[in-house]
Write a structure and sequence with these properties.
By secondary structure, the chain is an alpha+beta fold. It contains two helices and eleven strands; from the N terminus they run E-E-E-H-E-E-E-E-E-E-E-E-H. An eight-stranded mixed sheet has the order 6-7-8-9-4-3-10-11. It has a three-stranded antiparallel sheet with strand order 1-2-5, with no helix packed on it. Strand 6 and strand 7 form a beta hairpin.
Length: 155
């Protein structure tokens, strides 16, 4: 279930060692849990938690390196020192960046609104998300999902 009220801006966070800090200066667009095997392996857990934020609203201070997938389209950014997974960018830029919820200074209000790749989920690992998809939501679902999340955030 998403937070009852929008988070206070800016939203800040960083890696475990503190050498990379990030700042988000716009309201989150959507929160999600991804259950794909890749996210399980990258996070060392049952799923990854992320918050989609407008790409232009994310500021990074410190050095990151690409880890995980090294493809042309998806780039997982990690701290160059502690190797903590911080955020994922997609090319071409779809207008958002996925920031890992666990790196936020105050992650408590970012419960997943949607779950993706539930067909690959561990049978004991479900969240209170309002929407579940066996893969990724179809493209036509994103507009209504973003609108519903924004409406909930607005109270």
């Amino acid at each position: 279930m998403p937070p009852a009220r929008p988070p206070t801006l800016p939203i800040e966070g960083g890696c475990r060692c503190g050498q990379v800090r990030l700042r988000i200066d716009a309201a989150p667009m959507l929160t999600m849990a991804c259950h794909c095997r890749g996210c399980q392996q990258m996070s060392g857990s049952a799923f990854s938690l992320s918050v989609a934020v407008p790409s232009g609203a994310l500021t990074i201070a410190g050095d990151t390196v690409v880890g995980g997938l090294h493809g042309a389209q998806i780039r997982h950014h990690h701290c160059d020192h502690c190797k903590g997974w911080l955020f994922t960018r997609i090319d071409p830029d779809p207008g958002f960046t996925n920031v890992r919820v666990g790196v936020l200074d105050d992650p408590a209000g970012f419960a997943p609104f949607i779950e993706t790749c539930t067909a690959e989920a561990q049978p004991w690992a479900m969240t209170p998300a309002r929407h579940r998809y066996p893969g990724f939501p179809p493209p036509e679902a994103f507009g209504p999902l973003l609108a519903e999340y924004a409406a909930i955030q607005a109270g």
